[in-house]
Structures are given as C-alpha cells and as structure tokens.
Amino acid sequence: MRSKKLLASILCVGLTISMLAGCGNKKDNSNPEPAATEAAADAGKENTNGGKSTGYTGEPAEIHYAYWQDSLAPYLEECKTKFESQNPNITIVLEPTTWTEYWTKLETAATGGSVADVFQMNGPNINKYAEAGIVLSLADYITSSGLDLNNYPAAMKDLYNVDGMQYGIPIDYDTIGLWYNKELFDAAGVSYPTDSWTWDDLKAAAKKLTNTEKNIYGISAGYSDQGGFYNTVFAAGGYILNEDKTACGFDQDATKQGIQCWIDLMKAGYSPSQASLSENADYIQFMSGKVAMLFAGDWFAANFADPKADFADKCDVALLPTINGKRASVIHGKANCISASSKNPDAAWAWVNYLAGTEANEILGKSGAAIPAYTGYSDLFFKHYPQYNMGIFSQEAKECAYTYPASKGFTQWADVVWNELMPVYSLEASLDDACANITSQMNGILEAQQ
Question: For residues 129 and 135, what is the distance between their CA atoms, to the nearest angstrom?
Fold first, then answer.
C-alpha cells in the first residue's frame, strides 16, 4: 500500500479543472488485486440480461456508496430498494455530496483510508486514483461475472481503462450536439442545420444569422474544450493526447486547424467576444436570443426545456457538422469504482454489477437524470424531451465518439492549455505561439508522469 503522503501528493494536484469535466468545465498496482470469490463469480450473471438477483451469498455486509449528483437520488433510492430485496445480506448506505464538495471530501477520505466502498468517478480523475492505488482493478470480477462491456459505448469503456486495466463501469454518458435557436433562424431566413452540414455550412449560416445592430450573433465561438475545440480537433484529424499518452498533439497542423476554425469565427465577428462570454455564459446568451447556435451537451436539455425559461419550443439540436468529411463528438460520463481498501469487495462488486445491469439502467432512463450508459436504454431518457431531436446524442456515441482526453497530470496540463489559449480566443495572441508553448509545457508534464 502506498503511503498516505504519496497518496496526498498525487491527489492534491489541482482538483479545480478536473472537477468540472463533464459538467461544463473551463470554457469547461501497488495494491494486490483480490481474486473474485465464488460468491462474486455468481454475482450479476443474470443481472445484465434481466436485472434479476445478483446472487451474492457472502457474509452480511454494509456497502457505502458515495455520489455527487442530486438528480440521481430518486434513481439510486429505487435501485437500493430493489437491490436489497434481492440481496438481503447487503445493506447499501447512500452518501450524497454536493458537486462543489465531492472531490475535496473524496481526497480527504482517500488519504485518511476511509473512502466509501463504491464511489463515482469522472474521466479526468481516474488516472491519478488508479495510479495512487485507491481504486480496485475490476478485471477478475468482470470476467467471473460475465459482464459484457460491449453493452456500453466503446469510448466510455476506454475512458476508465488505465494501462490495460478496467477500473470503472460506466453509469451514464454525454456527447455534444449543435443546438440552434429556431426563431433566429426563421427571422434570418436560414434553413435549420441538417445531418449533411459541413463546417463551411455552419460558418455561412453564422454569417447570415449575425446582426450586430440587434446584438445578435450566429454562434458562440468562445473558449470551450469539451463543448468546443476538442470536437473540431478530432474532426479535423488532430488529437490532444497520443495513444499512449506520452505526448500531446498541439504541434500537429490538424490540431491547429481544429482550433483555428473557432478563432476564424471570432475574427469574423460572428460570435460574442471572449470577454462577453466570460461575463455571461454561452448558454445564457443562447437562451436570451443573442446567440443562434451553440455547441453543447445533452445535459443542457433540462435548462432549455425548463417551463420557467419560456424557451422550450424555441430551440432544437442537430448532429455536429463535419470537417473534411469527418464528424467527431467528445464523449464523457461517470463511472462506478470500488475502493481498493473496501473490506467487502465482493459485496461492493454485487452493487456495482447491479447498477451496470438492465434493471438499474431502465430505472435511470425513466428517471430523466442522465442518459444510461447501457446501450439500448438511452431512448428512455430522450422521451423526457420529445420536442428535441435527442437521438443525435446516442447516434454520435455509436458512430463518432472520441474519448474525453485525460491522463496522469491532467489538472496541470489542462491549466496550461487554458492559460495559453484564452488570449488566442481573445484575439490577443498567435495560435502558433500558443500551441508551441502548450507543446513544450504539456510534454514536460506528461514525461514527468511516466
């Protein structure tokens, strides 16, 4: 077991950015792996096919489950009730924490050796928690239980695979769509976005939709990674991290192209300035009728459809446009992990495996809290927003999803990217210079993590 001092040094490196990934971020094996016991081997064999009893036959156990999203509470309460009725030897203790407190509390618990048996994880943090030996490799449990990871988007499965070991089972996912204000399109006589739109089509529409006299802009083109240039970098053929995460791709022409397309929109005046978007968030300006198009995730549907906003019928969403014939959408989402220090890992796995199955995913979809990660249940979530073309989000997850870029040292290099690119989006610095600076600093961070 690594020392508490080492755990602290790994975990305390800049939580701020990684906390935000997946919820709108800055714009956006030192532990032995316990063999799966016979009880665990039986756990969940039926669950992934029909949501039946996980089959846990071990000693009575109390499993603590830490999570951050309040909207998941009704779903988890129902899952707890059903799971406990099927597994009378296991009691689930739900431990909700607000988003702003979750990572600080988790870090404190991890360094103190009191982390919950099962807890939620996001992409930016999985590498450092795996490196610190805090999360348990699930390889043996997955194999013994027969859990089929092909039931989840491949990019989501890969997000929680570190050095070839699976440390998390996806809970939900999100991708990015092109939201548009139908009223502004109609007023400008511009046809709505279609599946065949290219970046040139988007740029042409942004030009027609921009009316500076009325303070209306065609698109929000300010700094955003998950909801912005990550998507266009991948579509242009570039990358943020190479395959083995030892170097960045900011020195690649295709990566620069994927960022430059946003800078061009800013230079042309088709977007509010970076200063304006820093003062008033892009989705606020979109909902107020000042911005006609917005790259944003499926989670924004709840904001747009809120009856109090009087905006539900004014917008819709389309697939992201292609660049050089290629479409790309960054995928992210939460996963369930098991603490390497759990005294009841078999019982913890029974709970994780239940949440990974059909019954729990059906409950999640019907709750409307998030898109279930289990393929085939996303439509249950989309039915909560029948006025929108929500199917594009699952289509992108299947056809053009790219894993959210994350690695050891994420918080450090994400700060570098932010600091170097913000002046570029403010039209105060050169993209080439910024990318050269990012490459030098980011590669140094990645090298130090090897």
Answer: 6
Amino acid identity of residue 23, one-letter, is C
Q: What whole-number distance in Å separates Cα of residue 373 and Cα of residue 365?
A: 9
pLDDT tops 60 at residue 4: no
**pTM of the predicted model as reported, rounded to 2 decimal places:** 0.88
Question: What's the chain's average pLDDT?
Answer: 89
CB atoms within 10 A of CB 248: 26
Give 341-399 pLDDT, tens digit per residue.
999 999 999 999 999 999 999 999 999 999 999 988 999 999 999 999 999 999 999 99
SS3 (DSSP) at 213: helix
Rounded to 5 degrees, φ, ψ at 331 are: -115, 140
Amino acid (1-letter code) at residue 408: K
**300-351: per-residue pLDDT in tens?**
999 999 999 999 999 999 999 999 999 999 999 999 999 999 999 999 999 9
Q: How far apart are CA 154 and CA 151, in angstroms?
A: 9
Tokens of 296: 């944003």
Residue 33's pLDDT is what?
A: 30
Residue 156 half-sphere exposure toward CB, CA atoms < 13 A: 30
